[in-house]
Write a structure and sequence with these properties.
The structure is a homodimer of 210-residue chains.
Chain A: H1 3-22, H2 25-32, H3 36-42, H4 46-65, H5 72-89, H6 91-99, H7 107-130, H8 140-162, H9 167-182, H10 185-199
Helix pairs in contact in A: 1-2, 1-4, 1-6, 4-6, 4-7, 5-7, 5-9, 5-10, 7-8, 8-9, 9-10
């Protein structure tokens, strides 16, 4: 790991543990195993560190959504599984999402994070409607604007209640609700099957390799 | 307002503005217009203040759910509207819900908050299933455990994106998704009508008085 990333990971761990306000540069430098001077060389302020974590989290989470799949609805399910996986394993993603719910100094970065997310998901919902997978009175815009908060709440409450150990089944229930409400009857069983397969623990990655 | 409540409101405003870690007893005492000594008499620590805010928020939000209605599903919709209204107008409810998503020292109070909430909502979903309003593969437990996080995420993202000015339409969309997925076909149109009426701005309170 190069030094800049080492510092970002240490900052993420500290922000995730105590929040932005209580985090200190000294603790972050200690966590990264660098001097405070070396830290300031890369990130002149605590705010710069937080924005660095949020940016890096954006990159890592948007990466998982960009796969091409023939079924747009299935692609969304797969992306949510991948992000849930990152939330369980990647301190930068965990801290970035935590910081994005804090107030004040991050506000601009945070709003743009949600706008980007919702915009990206709206595009995929639009494809899913065009492909006939979904048939619903709700527009692609309404679906994107409700699924992103739904996922946000599911992962937060899972964190509070179980330290995210029930995150996969909780996200699976989210998709059962959303797809039962919106899937075209001709696609419903297939899409609910994708949810079961994706979150069963066997996972879509195993397909074809066993 | 008695002095204890005055202090709790000032604490709520400060916690809501800057979060727990950055809030100071001095600022809270100033906001309440009392001396720090008077404040310590009621709340010996900052943690005691936060737990006081969380407790008071619990009381205020549970109050709105306890109305009896002939339609359990409609009662849930009405309760969510009342809580959305409190989130827009009551600093104690706003701060209590914000604190309940922080980590560390509140963890016990926070977990019990979600368990109580989910338990209460599960009971109403059970009634709605028994009354034949809902017919779904999801159990009352799964419904309660997914609707509470859904609402949590909707109000948080509405706060970040619009300062909660789109909270009512966002909660209405949540119910359209949940009820389309779960309502018995014989009750679906009526329940979607309840959602429209409740969140249209005319509001259920106006019924019969106009």
């Amino acid at each position: 790991m190069e030094r800049r990333e080492q510092i970002l990971v240490a900052a993420a761990e500290e922000f995730d543990r105590v929040g932005f306000a209580a985090a200190t540069i000294a603790a972050i430098a200690r966590g990264a195993g660098v001097s405070q001077g070396a830290l300031y060389f890369h990130f002149p302020t605590k705010l710069a560190l937080a924005l660095g974590v949020i940016d890096e989290q954006n990159v890592r989470t948007f990466d998982v959504v960009s796969h091409t799949e023939q079924s747009p609805a299935a692609a969304l399910v797969g992306a949510s599984h991948a992000i849930a996986d990152l939330l369980r394993t990647d301190p930068i993603v965990r801290a970035g999402i935590r910081l994005s719910l804090e107030r004040g100094e991050f506000h601009a970065a945070t709003v743009s994070f949600y706008e980007q997310w919702i915009g990206g998901i709206v595009d995929v919902f639009r494809l899913a409607i065009a492909a006939g997978e979904l048939r619903t009175d709700l527009s692609a815009e309404q679906l994107g604007a409700t699924v992103v908060p739904y996922f946000t709440g599911v992962q937060l409450v899972s964190d509070v209640r179980t330290g995210r150990s029930d995150l996969f089944p909780a996200v699976a229930t989210m998709w059962r609700v959303v797809l039962t409400a919106t899937a075209d009857p001709a696609h419903r069983d297939r899409l609910l099957g994708v949810v079961d397969e994706t979150f069963s623990g066997r996972g879509v990655r195993g397909r074809g390799t066993t």
